[in-house]
């Protein structure tokens, strides 16, 4: 019990530390950026301001103080939930994000779950048929799909399915005025989801295929075979369980990868979400918004990593207390004679 | 009565006794080695690279020439690949645009590899604590989606041109290579020849160049090659999304940035033709990268 509390508090401290570092990096980058920071507060109005007015504004916003002082005042504001005003949307940053973050969670979450589900199935299927024609064919096609940029796949799919066939909508998250309609949402999700899955699927399926192929060469598989278990049972009951920890680690590490993909695809499909916000705010130099988006993304990724570690410790007790890493890499099933 | 035993009557047993014949791997003949080279990819890539390096030979026309009489013409005998919405001939733009795209890919990779090698070797040579700090830093940077960092830096730099884009892609893509460099350096740093070089007065850069670099070059080579492809892909994505190269600077990405308008009017050639060139190049580069990786870790399979 005490161990558990210590473990959790360690993780929390780690999370706080990483967030803190991230915020410093992001803040410095935003402040050192060329271009007038006043623009991000007042917009085009700056050009019409006189020198005295400008100086007054700088004084009021504290822009003449050293950066680290500015950082701490920004930090204390952030603790009160004030991240500044988005110059592009003329609103509080958080309220802009609040309107759209759920769309990103739906798209990103669904693509994450589906990608890994299909990757697992495809990877196992390929490993079962190792070096057969179908495996080789899937490997070749898969390599090509990972090379194709996501935006081009989106363009192709839009061209085929929404322009020429007219089956699916090409942009938005729902038809106008139907934000509650689930059918409309699903219809708008199909194309972005397909792009995301196609783009990431093989990368992970190939990892699983290789892990599985490696696992099937282990001695315990031979023992299972001798015992008379059939192939399906050995794969799903024994091998799968053994590759699960590394699979979950891969899942956690893939969060930034898939999130980045989601952002790009969102922009291509003009899907209202964090990604579209990101590109819009980058285009209009809306640093307040960009900073918060970077922070949110970073924190999300760190949390995903921690969750993966916690789940791994539960599945595989060997991973606990950091000494598990060695056991895992040794690749020896317990009881193997050496 | 005494029984006579010959050695055949006995069987040697024991858990470590090897009963299988160990095959000694024969050296591959030239023909076998040649067969493994992905020569189709190499050939195709060669054609594309040569075409992009010397577009003047293929066509005398200027790529930026706008033929306003022929806007959005479908591929025909005069314009093999059609023209775009500004009346520019896509066939000519492909080669000139490819030049910019390939240059950005190579330059970005050169920048990222240089950073990665220096960062990784410092981290590998440094003491435990500094090494830890440096590696934590890479992990934090890796935890933000790279596209986010790129648009952040790009927003800061302002007006994009090919050089600024390759710098941005370069300084955001070094983390993975530096991790490999670091672990390789950790393994070889205590070897006697490194000590000898240090005792003889060789400084860090000398040791890096003469001793460390030849050792880890083969293990990062495939990532370097794949990075060229990744950089080209990122450039086209950025240009397509409107934060990369503007339309006046022709690259495969900026050609595709016209496609949003083309989509609505169903001008498929503006979208598909530059895309096919882009994808073909990326597939070829990946294939070559995979071949290099396979050549480097040729281990015996258990089966």
Distance between the termini of chain B: 49 Å
Mean pLDDT of chain B: 80
Structural class of chain A: mainly alpha
Number of domains of chain B: 1
Average of the residue pLDDT scores of chain A: 78
Shape summary of chain B: extended
Shape of chain A: globular
Number of strands of chain A: 2
How large is the count of helical segments of chain B?
13
Which bin fits the share of residues in helices of chain A? Answer: over 70%
Protein name (chain B): Peptide ABC transporter permease
InterPro entries (chain B): BP-dependent_transpt_permease (IPR050366), MetI-like (IPR000515), MetI-like_sf (IPR035906)
Pfam families (chain B): BPD_transp_1
Keywords (chain B): Cell membrane, Membrane, Transmembrane, Transmembrane helix, Transport
Question: Brief overview, please?
Answer:
Chain A is mainly alpha-helical. In chain A, 75% of the residues lie in helices and 1% in strands. Chain B has a single domain (89-301), classed as MetI-like (MetI-like fold, Orthogonal Bundle), CATH 1.10.3720.10.
What does this structure look like?
The complex is a heterodimer of chains A (338) and B (303). Chain A has 338 residues and is an all-alpha fold. Chain A is 75% helix and 1% strand. A two-stranded antiparallel sheet of chain A has the order 1-2. In chain A, α8 packs antiparallel against α11 (255-268) and α10 (231-253) packs antiparallel against α13. The two termini of chain A are 37 Å apart. Chain B has 303 residues and is mainly α. The model of chain B has no long low-confidence stretch (mean pLDDT 80). The interface between A and B is large, with 52 and 45 residues.
């Amino acid at each position: 019990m005490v161990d558990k509390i210590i473990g959790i508090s360690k993780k929390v401290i780690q999370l706080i530390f990483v967030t803190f570092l991230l915020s410093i990096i992001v803040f410095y980058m935003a402040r050192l950026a060329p271009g007038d920071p006043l623009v991000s507060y007042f917009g085009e109005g700056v050009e019409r301001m006189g020198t005295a007015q400008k100086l007054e504004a700088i004084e009021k916003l504290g822009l003449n103080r050293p950066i680290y002082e500015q950082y701490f005042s920004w930090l204390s504001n952030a603790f009160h939930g004030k991240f500044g005003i988005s110059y592009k949307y003329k609103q509080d940053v958080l309220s802009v994000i609040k309107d759209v973050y759920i769309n990103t969670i739906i798209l990103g979450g669904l693509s994450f779950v589906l990608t890994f589900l299909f990757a697992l199935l495809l990877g196992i299927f390929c490993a079962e048929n190792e070096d057969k024609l179908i495996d080789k064919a899937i490997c070749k096609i898969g390599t090509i799909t990972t090379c194709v940029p996501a935006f081009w796949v989106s363009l192709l799919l839009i061209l085929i399915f929404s322009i020429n066939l007219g089956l699916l909508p090409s942009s938005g998250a729902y038809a106008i005025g139907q934000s509650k309609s689930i059918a409309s949402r699903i219809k708008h999700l199909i194309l972005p989801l397909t792009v995301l899955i196609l783009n990431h699927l093989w990368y992970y399926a190939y990892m699983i295929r290789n892990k599985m192929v490696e696992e099937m060469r282990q001695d315990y598989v031979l023992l299972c075979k001798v015992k008379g278990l059939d192939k399906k049972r050995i794969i799903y009951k024994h091998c799968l369980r053994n590759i699960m920890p590394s699979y979950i680690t891969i899942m956690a590490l893939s969060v930034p990868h898939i999130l980045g993909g989601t952002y790009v695809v969102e922009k291509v499909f003009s899907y209202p979400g964090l990604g579209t916000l990101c590109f819009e705010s980058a285009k209009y130099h809306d640093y307040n918004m960009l900073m918060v988006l970077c922070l949110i993304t970073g924190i999300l990724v760190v949390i995903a990593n921690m969750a993966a570690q916690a789940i791994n410790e539960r599945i595989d007790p060997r991973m606990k207390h950091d000494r598990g890493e060695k056991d895992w890499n040794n690749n020896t099933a317990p009881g193997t004679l050496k | 009565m005494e029984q006579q035993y010959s050695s055949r009557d006995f069987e040697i047993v024991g858990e470590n006794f090897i009963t299988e014949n160990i095959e000694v791997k024969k050296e591959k003949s030239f023909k076998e080695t040649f067969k493994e080279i992905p020569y189709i990819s190499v050939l195709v890539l060669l054609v594309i690279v040569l075409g992009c390096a010397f577009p003047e030979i293929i066509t005398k026309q200027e790529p930026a020439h706008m033929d306003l009489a022929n806007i959005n013409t479908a591929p025909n005998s005069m314009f093999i690949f059609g023209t775009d919405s500004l009346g520019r001939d896509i066939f000519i733009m492909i080669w000139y645009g490819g030049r910019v795209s390939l240059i950005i890919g190579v330059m970005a990779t050169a920048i990222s590899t240089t950073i990665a090698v220096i960062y990784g070797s410092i981290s590998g040579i440094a003491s435990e604590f500094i090494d830890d700090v440096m590696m934590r830093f890479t992990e934090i940077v890796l935890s933000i989606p790279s596209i986010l960092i790129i648009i952040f830096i790009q927003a800061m730099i302002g007006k994009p041109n090919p050089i600024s884009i390759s710098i941005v892609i370069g300084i955001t893509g070094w983390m993975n290579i530096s991790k490999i460099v670091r672990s390789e350096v950790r393994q070889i740093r205590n070897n006697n020849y490194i000590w000898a070089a240090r005792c003889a007065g060789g400084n860090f850069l000398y040791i890096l160049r003469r001793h460390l670099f030849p050792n880890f070059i083969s293990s990062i080579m495939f990532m370097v090659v794949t990075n060229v492809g990744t950089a080209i892909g990122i450039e086209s994505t950025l240009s397509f999304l409107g934060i990369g190269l503007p339309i006046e600077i022709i690259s495969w990405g900026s050609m595709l940035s016209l496609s949003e308008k083309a989509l609505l009017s169903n001008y498929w050639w503006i979208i598909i033709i530059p895309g096919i060139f882009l994808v073909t190049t990326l597939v070829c580069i990946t294939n070559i990268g995979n071949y290099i990786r396979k050549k480097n870790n040729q281990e015996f399979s258990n089966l």
